[in-house]
Design a protein that fits this description.
Layout: H1 2-19, E1 22-32, E2 35-47, H2 49-57, E3 61-63, E4 66-72
Antiparallel strand pairs: 1-2, 1-4, 3-4
C-alpha cells in the first residue's frame, strides 16, 4: 500500500510539472511608417504561460505615432 501511494505521488508530481509547459503563440500587430500590419506570429515552445507572456511582451514598442502590440493567442 505504501508503494502505491509513492507511485501515485510520483505520477501526480510528474503530470503537474509537465502539464504547466506547452506551446504558446504570440501575435503582433501595429503600424510602421503609418502602414498597418497584423498577424505576425511567433511560437514559443515548451514554456509556462508566464514565461511566454514575458517573451511576447518584449515585442511591444512605441515610437512616435507608430506602435507594435503583441499578445498571446
Amino acid at each position: 500500500m505504501k508503494k502505491l501511494f509513492v507511485l501515485v505521488g510520483v505520477i501526480g508530481a510528474f503530470s503537474v510539472l509537465t502539464a504547466c509547459k506547452k506551446d504558446y503563440v504570440c501575435s503582433c500587430e501595429g503600424t510602421v511608417l503609418g502602414i498597418p500590419f497584423s498577424g505576425v506570429d511567433t511560437t514559443y515552445s515548451d514554456m509556462t504561460k508566464k514565461d511566454a507572456e514575458s517573451e511576447c511582451n518584449k515585442g511591444d514598442a512605441s515610437f512616435g505615432s507608430d506602435y507594435v502590440d503583441c499578445e498571446l493567442k
